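hey
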């Protein structure tokens, strides 16, 4: 009897772990998408879809384990997922230098080796509960049936909700833009006037040297990102753009970052967003606010000084790369 109770506790624990992992990924979905995209396997649209399907899958597995539904299939699926995740983490540990594998999103950081140890423990627990029988401990199922008066199977409703949740709570950018119409506008007068006030930034070792002689060159085709070094979405947006260019073999030479913030903040921004190949220009905060109307980040595409596109964080996708840089 005690063994059966321990098996039930282990099963609830594994199911809860999958649900918690899915929720934490969902909370930091933008970072999770960028992490998945960094492997350069899918384009960004498919990455946003895959990320949410993965989260939905974890939610479903967690609920199936807790409610002990389709137990034989669920056990095999859970074991397969853990083995695949572990093999993936071994690859990450060998070929990448990731501090956080994003198994629990950004709120709980685990290194690949820590996550591998966690997965091995889960696999061991799965074999421990393998012989758990569906008829053991039906108290919860009976209580649910009583509460719903057997009119509906509440568990199936939860499974449907679990599948829909990642797509409803945090819609994909492509869907978000269709649902919510955003006005991407800037003050063009302030934007053009700012060119004469920008100060070029050179990066020497771990410091910034301001170059007041160099002027912003308006000839040619350019992408201008107007950002704050302390803005979370500015970091995510510029990192997303940087990865898109890297994955598509496009040089950063014609990308210009108009940025304001502390010296340390700008250095961290440049490193985190992997934009060492971009040109950095210091802009005063009030001028950046005047240009963007207070919306950060703002991305402006110029063709021979003419503005041809204005985008925000949600608008960035690989279609921007069709612009000849």
């Amino acid at each position: 009897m005690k063994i059966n109770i321990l098996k039930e506790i282990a099963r609830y624990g594994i199911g809860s772990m999958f649900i918690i992992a899915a929720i934490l990924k969902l909370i930091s979905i933008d970072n999770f998408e960028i992490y998945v995209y960094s492997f350069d396997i899918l384009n960004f649209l498919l990455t946003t879809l895959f990320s949410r399907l993965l989260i939905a899958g974890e939610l479903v597995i967690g609920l199936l384990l807790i409610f002990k539904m389709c137990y034989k299939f669920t056990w095999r699926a859970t074991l397969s997922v853990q083995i695949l995740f572990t093999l993936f983490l071994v690859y990450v540990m060998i070929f990448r230098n990731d501090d956080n594998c994003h198994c629990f999103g950004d709120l709980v950081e685990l290194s690949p080796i820590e996550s591998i140890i966690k997965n091995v423990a889960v696999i061991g627990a799965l074999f421990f509960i393998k012989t758990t029988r569906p008829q053991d401990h039906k108290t919860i199922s009976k209580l649910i049936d009583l509460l719903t008066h057997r009119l509906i199977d509440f568990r199936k409703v939860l499974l449907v909700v679990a599948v829909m949740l990642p797509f409803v709570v945090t819609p994909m950018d492509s869907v978000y833009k269709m649902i919510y119409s955003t006005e991407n506008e800037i003050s063009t007068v302030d934007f053009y006037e700012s060119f004469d006030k920008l100060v070029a930034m050179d990066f020497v070792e771990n410091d910034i040297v301001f170059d007041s002689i160099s002027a912003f060159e308006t000839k040619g085709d350019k992408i201008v990102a107007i950002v704050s070094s302390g803005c979370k979405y500015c970091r995510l947006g510029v990192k997303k753009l940087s990865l898109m260019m890297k994955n598509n073999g496009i040089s950063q030479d014609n990308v210009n970052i108009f940025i304001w913030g502390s010296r340390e903040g700008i250095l961290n921004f440049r490193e985190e967003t992997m934009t060492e190949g971009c040109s950095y220009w210091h802009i005063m905060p009030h001028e950046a606010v005047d240009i963007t109307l207070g919306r950060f980040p703002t991305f402006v595409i110029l063709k021979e000084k003419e503005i041809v596109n204005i985008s925000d964080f949600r608008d960035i996708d690989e279609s921007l790369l069709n612009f000849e840089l």
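The CA atoms of residues 301 and 309 lie 5 Å apart. The first strand starts at residue 199 and ends at 204.
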